[in-house]
Amino acid sequence: MSSKDKIVIAFDLYGTLLSTESIAKELATHFGQEQANKIAALWRRYQLEYTWRMNSMTLYKPFSEITSAALKHALLESSVSLTDEDISKLMKAYNNLGTFPDVKPGLDAITSDPSIDAYVFSNGSDEMVSSSVNESPSLSAHASVFKGLVTVQEIEVFKPDPTVYHHLVRKVGKSFGNEDMASVWLVSGNPFDIVGARAAGINAAWVDRGAGHSGNGGWTDQLGTLASGGPTIIVSGVEEAVKGIKKFMAEDAGGSVAGHNSESVEMGPG
User: Fold this and answer.
1) Structural domain of residue 51, as residue ranges?
2) Which UniProt keywords are present, listed alphabetically (predicted)?
């Protein structure tokens, strides 16, 4: 099977394959676990917010610098402090984030499937993403699954700017306006990423890990309604995303076109 005929699955890294919440374990060595969890959540919040603000101002700094600045913001807002050495250690710990439990079986399924080309697709710099993929204790064993690592370093703009998704399509050897666009998929646990991909004309599987937990789960992002429609499919994890994408492509061959505002389809197990 030629690359042109394959399904391309681009996996978001932070918050989809790697759990950014796992950094709370490192923070807990300095603070109590409850406060560490709150700081970790704030850290992630400002990490993303800073990228969106930078986009709006047409400015760019590497994701590692934004991540460090966001950590300092979270610490100040929490009325605590760390030494420069401790902050440096926390930044290094970002290369050792753990994966979600559903990642391993999902990537294992791709290993034995010649119809799929898998990529990592991230806001991170080349060095940061490569380090995270190759140094994470739980993700490094699967590094060979990925045909490539696609970052924003070359174009110096962050998700959800459409330039980022156009960059992905070019990097994986596809073209806009052609039928093979329908075979490019984003898998992400971040709603803003899903809406951005759909607005740019890419199919997207949203990983809803809150499904099944009381009071959590379900697509709530209303910007999708205004901008591009919601996710193409909704899944509970990476393994289900791989199965769901293959099922969708098989059932919808020649039918639905990426970028149309079709209703989301929830995929069940199996």
Assistant:
1) 20-96
2) Hydrolase
